[in-house]
UniProtKB/TrEMBL annotation:
UniProt-listed Pfam families: HD
Full protein name: HD domain-containing protein
Record-linked Gene3D superfamilies: 1.20.58.1910, HD-domain/PDEase-like
Domain HD: 26-129
SUPFAM superfamilies membership: HD-domain/PDEase-like (SSF109604)
Amino acid sequence: MNKDQIIANTVDFVKEKLKNAEGGHDWFHIERVFKNAEIIAASEEVDGFIVALGALLHDIADSKFHNGDETIGPRIARQFLHEQQVREDDILHVENIIKWISFKGGNEAQEFRSPELDVVQDADRLDALGAIGIARTFNYGGHKGRPIFDPDVKPNLHMSKEEYKASSAPTINHFYEKLFLLKDRMNTKTGKKLAEERHDFMVGFLEQFYKEWGLPSQKWHF
């Protein structure tokens, strides 16, 4: 099994599979997560092959774009990796990374853990923070036809997984319902450090946003 060739084949596979994907979940998102994962993995004791495959395949079929079906991504990844003659235990590990990487409202117990998942999850969460995180958030809100902001619609910080997936709240609410929670849920030291700067940038963005809207900067506590 030539691991470098398998990773190269995976890059080509993902690029082709996501060539028409929504802008926040396209190949460029995957590439950023892959690079973030490499940076974080350098300070962790992990299997770099599993980290690479997990990062590259983590959004191969995001359930948000498949009627909430969370089985499609792991199934596509398994079929591809099987064709690449990857070992069964490695395939299962990557499947579990894809299955458990998502935020899902933040209130669901994570039943699978591994150092490799910790790295890929942190890398993915970093791409939901900072300037890119803001851009992705408004891109997805526009894609779903959501209002930018409604001062009368308060964030729901205690949603179940089902409520989180079904939410159609204004885009600004997403900062409170997910993005501002991520900094304290990072798994690795490097992830935590990188998240701090991006978190602070988002706080400053919302302060300016509320100022331009004509509201107190601390409209909601964050």
